[in-house]
Amino acid sequence: MKRFENKVAIVTGAASGIGRATALKFAQEGANVVLADIGDLSETLIHLQKIISPSGVRALHCNIGVREEVVNLIETAVASFGRIDYAVNCAGIAGKISKPLHEYPEEEWLQQIQINLIGTWYCVKFQLEQMLKQGGGNIVCVSSAAGLVGQPENSPYAASKHGVNGLVKTAAIEYATKNIRINAICPTAIETPMIMHGRRKLAENPEALQQAINFQRMKRMGQPEEVADVALWLCSEQSSFITGHCMAVDGGAFA
Questions:
Q1: 38 falls within a domain
Q2: Which residues are known catalytic residues?
Q3: What angle do CA 121, 192, 3 make, to 5 degrees?
Q4: Closest Cα to residue 195, out of 222, 161, 231, 230?
Q5: Is residue 237 a part of any domain in this protein?
Q6: Could you tell me if residue 74 is inside a domain?
């Protein structure tokens, strides 16, 4: 029997990168999957429908920074499958520029807080409400290594991810006796569209790419599938005594 046979998993940020890899792995392990993203989900949906029947997957647009869209996500998942066993919150944004804190544009600073922190709070809040109704569940938030240490010239991202880690630790304590576990994953340089084409444009900047690689003790970029494997493990009974943990997935960078 597959690990997540007949279970229900929500994955935000499922159109690409870590979210997409996580959704595919849940499907391969037998779960019904609800995909959510602000971007185009068609490619991920097609791949999932090759693994599980169309009746076992739902896809919908969701900007996690908008409360009503998160509520709709939860309601759609429950209406479709009756419950939510697992939620992996991968959705988030990175800044487009590198600036010291006092020069960082206010609008862009607030946008990252709205999506990465407040949006994740919306997700966790409404996921918890449903899990309390049904008697338990498991939540994993994809944070960042920037939530473990400072990140110069990237203050809003670091602040938002530190906030996510604090949210996870606090929620883990509050619901530890309610059959709900909540953990975070803190990746470093993972080969996703966000990092390859985002602020540092690693795909176009060989020097910056090599700096990122050199920071990892394994001297390579991580792959989305490697982070997805950790997310599924944290959702599984193999990690049944782990909650409130912010796990670095970092190729030894912080060793």
A1: yes
A2: 157
A3: 70
A4: 222
A5: yes
A6: yes
Specify the pLDDT at position 198: 64
Residues 198, 201: Cα–Cα separation, whole Å? 5
Q: How far is CA 66 from the centre of its chain?
A: 17
Q: Once rounded to an integer, what is the mean pLDDT over residues 133-141?
A: 98
Q: Dump pLDDT digits (tens) for 17-76.
A: 999 999 999 999 999 999 999 999 999 999 999 999 889 999 999 999 999 999 999 999
Structural domain includes residue 84: yes
Burial of 54 (0-12, 13-18, 19+ CB in 10 A): exposed
HSE-up (13 A, CA, CB side) for residue 35: 32
CATH of the domain at 133: 3.40.50.720
What is the domain range of residue 148? 8-190+223-249
pLDDT at residue 214 in the model: 78
In which residue are the tokens 């803190």 written? 186
Q: How many domains does the chain have?
A: 1
What does the buried/exposed string (b/e) look like for 172-210 if buried means 16 or more CB atoms within 10 Å of the residue's CB? beebeeeebbbbbbbbbbbbbebbbebbbebeeeeeebe
pLDDT tens string 203-240: 677 887 788 777 888 888 889 999 999 999 999 999 99
Q: How many CB atoms lie within 10 A of CB 145?
A: 21
